[in-house]
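Crash report, auto-generated. Payload:
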Amino acid sequence: MKSSITLWKVTLLISLFITIFGNFSFWSHLTNRLSPIDEPLILIGFFIILLALTNLLFTLVSFKPVFKLIAIIVLLTSASAAYFMDNYAVMIDKTMIRNVLATDFHETKELMSFRLIITILLLGILPSWLVLKANIKYPSLLKSLFQKTAISVICAGIIATTLYTNFQELSFFSRNNRELQHLINPENYILSLKSIIKRQFIDRNIVIKPIGKDASKKPNIGENRKPSLVVLVLGETARSMNFSLNGYQRNTNPLLAKQDIINFSDVSSCGTATAVSVPCMFSKFTRDEFSHSKGKQYENLLDVAKHAGYQVHWRDNNTGCQGTCGRITFENLANIKLSEFCKDGNCIDEVLLHNLQSVVNEKTGDKLIILHQKGNHGPTYHLRYPKEFEIFKPACKTNQLRSCSNEEIVNAYDNAVLYSDFFISQTIDFLKKNSESYDTAMVYMSDHGESLGENNLYLHGLPYFIAPEYQTKVPFIVWLSDNYQKSYDIDKSCLNQKSSHKLSHDNLFSSMIGLLGIQTQVHDEKLDIFSSCNKTIITKKP
Ligand SMILES: [Zn+2]
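Recovered output after restart:
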């Protein structure tokens, strides 16, 4: 007869396996941050706690009909989590899980690699296969309940004793290195997923509260005004310091430098990931007040513009509008088949300008158009631009950033910035062409930045309080046609004087309302960069 193994032993073995092999990032961060004196004690302490905790969680769900299925799911998920933590230095929290859930097939395809397959094979499939084949001896239900209670008490006891005997050292270290909890596999994704699912249930019953129902176009806007056509280019993963407009030594903005723009050079993002930043940018709340649920509970900038009579149209070459565009026109161009701009399900950003004229021509009236770029989305920066934009060479051409030199990574990233420079400039040219019939303006702002290997960090999404400026400083550019400046009474030189002021995503909501010439109670004049540059106001001053 095939030899058998008891359930509690399998559970303990899986827990031990994940604690050791699924947590390389955690162990290496831990040892790097410990002083040699603390090291053995705290290291052993954490090891015991992690093992006991994982074993406790596993024990609670180890019932015969579902045990193998749960074990395999956890092993495969933990293997993927370990891969991303070890290779890109990402941390796994609610935001990261939300991003993963929002990832589409093409993004997933871009992350595929030989190393990922090997990791999944060794840390996921191999142990899963062993679990599947194992002849597990399950206790009777009564015995199982007794056993579970006993094991839970033992695990909890071990955790409590370890904490108690090393309380000072462990609590001191944990308090000062709070972010490391996001590296603990599998607790990081299980707990994040749990709170997201809980949130989902709460969100389901949410009745979205309208805001700015009183919004209307200001009556005192220039008499000869034409309908307005404002384009908001929502950037992706573009970091401020790689824009030559902000002093970067490489000429990454050759075309925008020739456009008559106002460049704001010191702007902070609301979050470090799309799923946080995008809803926050459009919401009436500032970064301090914003939360995921508030983003869901209230209407946003796009609704206010609509209440004021604007036609609001969102064109997307990314993973959607993150819940902000429920009540406006949404057009997904990310997966269309258009050989001129798209290949293997990946489109470059010019697709957003394709047939834009017919969108504009559809109806007359005031229009706000959002162009959501793919921008500098990594790790495959080289897929963001067409060949002729490969100016900085050699460029990293794989998603395995660690296998490229730092220079190659930055080159690929800068080529993508160069292409965005072209794209934004093209958007301005498009608006110039429409200036006969419309008062035109363009605003460009990126959602968050990116780490390109500085301090061994890659990509983005670090918890905000430890995120480096590479991930939080974003470009912000405004272009106003002469007509627009006249009709809306905006003094450009005044804006230029403000261009080095400290700004953030907090300013977008009220500034856009100000720029669109909308009056409403939700407008906060203090956050509106345009309101104090209104010529009429300036001349009124004594
Ligand atoms: Zn993003």
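Post-recovery validation: The first strand starts at residue 5 and ends at 6.
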